Amino acid sequence: MINSPSPYGNIIADGSIVNAKLANGTIETAKLASTYGIQIGSITLGAPATSFDFTSLDINTDHAYRIVMNLSNNAAADANISVAINGDTTATNYYRQIMYADNAAVGGSRGNDNQIGNMGASCAFPMVLDILMSPDGIVFIYSPSSKYLGANLKIYKWFAHKVAAVANVTQITINSTQSWKTGSTAILYAFR
Amino acid sequence: MKGTKVSLNVKTGQITTTEYDYTPESPLILPEPLITKLINALKSKGIIKDSDIN
Q1: Which of A1, A118, A120, A154 shows the smallest number of beta carbons within 10 Å?
Q2: Residue B36 — φ and ψ, nearest 5°?
């Protein structure tokens, strides 16, 4: 929430809602036509965990979601990151395509699964997920991420979609095959 | 394997933590050093040649 005093009254902004308290004491309320990324949820791990889960979502209202994750792999082993829409964790209900590049090679692969990232062993792992739903109910998930550090740094672009159409996206879950360290965060934005 | 899920209900702000059992369903992507070792082992045994690697 932002409070901004002005000679004309106080402007109070909470997400896309702006209230202006005028000098005569009346309050005018307006909803911004469009805002870029309203934060609607944030999770910071107080202990290592393997899954972030956002519930009570409504993509029909929110249009699209972005999840910004600052993660760190708690294990000395690589880990797969996967996404589940509306609690559907069946891998074969999704398809994904990836493209990756390092200083020497560019490659890619496709799978009939819901993988959306691959986290390097014991590495910091920044990741951004964009989740959109087409007018005919197909859910798309895009994610740029990187893997490893220093001389082994590698960039990835992941793209996945859910095969069956849905009427809404009410839950987004991100799972890992290894735990994330305490302090790892996932911040959820809506594009209302 | 045991996992820990941290859930946030964005309407109520309630955070819940639950333990769950899971089996990774996605095929693992092999780490690059392991892929290189495998390729080198196959080449050293004459099973594949450089020209087989795309």
Answers
A1: A1
A2: -60, -45
